[in-house]
Amino acid sequence: MSKAIYITTTEPNSGKSIVSLGLMQMLLGKAAKVGYFRPIIDDYPDGGTDNHITTVISYFNIDMQYEEAYALTRSQVNHMNNQNKEDEVLDTIIEKYKAMEGRFDFVLVEGTDFSSEGSIIEWDINVLMAKNLGIPTIILGSGVGKTLDELVNNIYMAYDSFKDKGVEVLMVVANKVKPENIEIVQKGLKAQLPKDILIGVIPLNPILGNPTMMEIVEVLDGKVLFGKEYLNNQAGHFGVGAMQLRNYLTHLKKDGLVITPGDRADIILGALQANLSVNYPNVSGIILTGNLLPEDSIIKLIEGLSDIVPIVSVDDGTFSITNKIGAIRPRIYAENIQKITASIHDFAMHVPEDELTERLITFEPKGITPRMFQYNLLNRAKSDIKHIVLAEGLDERILMATKLLVDSNAVKITLLGDPKTIKEKVFQMDLDLDLDQVNIENPTESAHFDDYANELYELRKHKNVNQAMAKDLMEDVSYFATMMVHMGHADGMVSGAVHTTKQTILPSLLFIKTRPNVSVVSSVFFMCLEDRVMVYGDCAINPNPTAEQLAEIAISSSETSKFFGIEPKIAMLSYSSGDSGVGEDVDRVRKATQLVKERCPDLKIEGPIQYDAAVDAKVGKVKLPDSQVAGEATVFIFPDLNTGNNTYKAVQRETGALAIGPVLQGLNKPVNDLSRGCTVDDIFNTVIITAIQAQASTSK
């Protein structure tokens, strides 16, 4: 079953609680443990809590604490955004959601309330959260004050906005629709939306649209004099008792709220008596304005009555109080069982629950966002901490990345270089890096130097390497770091910020060597675009691979892709698609594709295929209509290094994509190369990936 569903609205006061309560009731009938999560909530001073959270947790008796059910308050989000920490907002939300996902079979996620200014920004936040959590969405719109066209267009634009950002919309719900308009709203939505989108239309329910006496007391800061046990009474109408009693009684309506000055004993007693009389509508409560209380004799009379509606005293005058009551927005809270059961009933009656359940069961997310990808990487690294050696310990970018890595508690780090020089460098940079938490190794002064040189001599003496040559090579940080990995003194190595790719990789080819059944070391980049992560290979190692090498690169890349949580759909790139092209280059790609199919028949692969047909669903459908890969490719195998290297750099520069790599594949133990133009983030991500690769190599 899909792990979660995201509920969002198009505007304030659309009745989101109806969908939340109805969905929770539905889900609890399908899954043993269902959690509830709100990424962002409003601020509640003086110890107040979010009503949505307390209502759902209390009514459904969910085994979770209030603090677990949300990530951030609105003021915290604003503060982070003002400090340009938007990524930190997403990271916090993802972390809290993931913690809940691990505890529950299913998580109901409820978006923001649109209670602040700037609805467009808030709308974007909801799209961003649903996208990065990787969960399908239900969109809710209100029919209050809208024509049919306005309601349908409002919901369609919301659907289109989510769909455009790659968020899967399972259902749209039109809420608060006049009962006589249900059928025409359903037809209007069906005509506008794709056929696979589920549609619910919920009628306006007076029970849910009226405030209770409890809500009125809270808003008015009133003092309850009588009838506390009836505070869940709903005020369907309200009116001011300013005229004589005989005239006021004729204006009473069902569930009416009486507003009158506290010294109008006639109105007070008349309203109480009318509530008991079968000849008049029932009264929901009485508001006494102006901080005036009835005389003692009247109080005594009221105390003797058998049935008393809530009587509430307030400070403000009648005019002010009437305006405040008119502005109250009704809500659903834990104690109001009538509203909760009405919500659950309305949802079940007017939403296709069986079809929705089926969609949730069969839903599979398409792709993964860069933010979720990076979160998953960090969590995997933390699950089994590995020791990574960084060969270029004097580079400022390496030192800044080391600071971040130490703070992350995800890896153990060794820096190569002179300890005194590294300490001076850290001081000059004013970098808050605690070097006591880092191992620093100077190759020429290391206790392992002679052992490493002897090991290199034994491994390479058949290639005419003598002891002196072995010692000279071991003074090179790339050789020393790689030997640390080979000897088991480190789990992985990262270099290349200063050294060339050849300098970084050559030692690993000499004595770490390739895995069994692997003849070619290759590389991939994880290309983190705005809304997805793709795998590019080989963009760093093999200049002109043969068909056999291309096939092996494709298979290795699919394994890397799968290992890092990306379903491999392989596009073997060329300048033509399908059978349309001829020539040596395209034939080589065609042969490589066939070799992959023979060796790994379960892999989804297409080739030769052009880049546009691989990434664009519309183009893919035209050029290769029967393909499982066209328009949905996740792994892109380039025909040569020239094409691959230039393409990844072009995509990176033009789209602002984060390129993580090159990540080497095919070696017995992880060694990874950095670009000499790498950033601190590049180094951080490469080290984390190396640590995860090390988890796999040490478990074998």
Which features would summarize this protein structure in a list?
700 residues, alpha/beta, 7-stranded parallel beta sheet, 6-stranded mixed beta sheet, 28 helices, elongated, transferase, phosphate acetyltransferase activity
Provide an overview of this structure:
Its EC number is 2.3.1.8. Residues 215-325 form the DRTGG domain. GO terms for molecular function: phosphate acetyltransferase activity. By secondary structure, this protein is α/β, with parallel strands linked by helices. The chain contains 28 helices and 23 strands. A 7-stranded parallel sheet has the order 3-2-4-1-5-6-7, with helices on both faces. The chain has a 6-stranded mixed sheet with strand order 20-19-21-18-17-22, with helices on both faces. It starts with a strand and ends with a helix. The model has no long low-confidence stretch (mean pLDDT 87).
Largest sheet: 7 strands, parallel
Mean pLDDT: 87
Q: Order of strands across the biggest sheet?
A: 3-2-4-1-5-6-7
Radius of gyration: 34 Å
Strand content: 15-25%
- Tell me, what's the shape? elongated
Helix content: 40-55%
Unreliable spans are none
Number of helices: 28
Give the structural class: alpha/beta
Subcellular location: Cytoplasm
Protein name: Phosphate acetyltransferase
Domain DRTGG: 215-325
Enzyme class: transferase
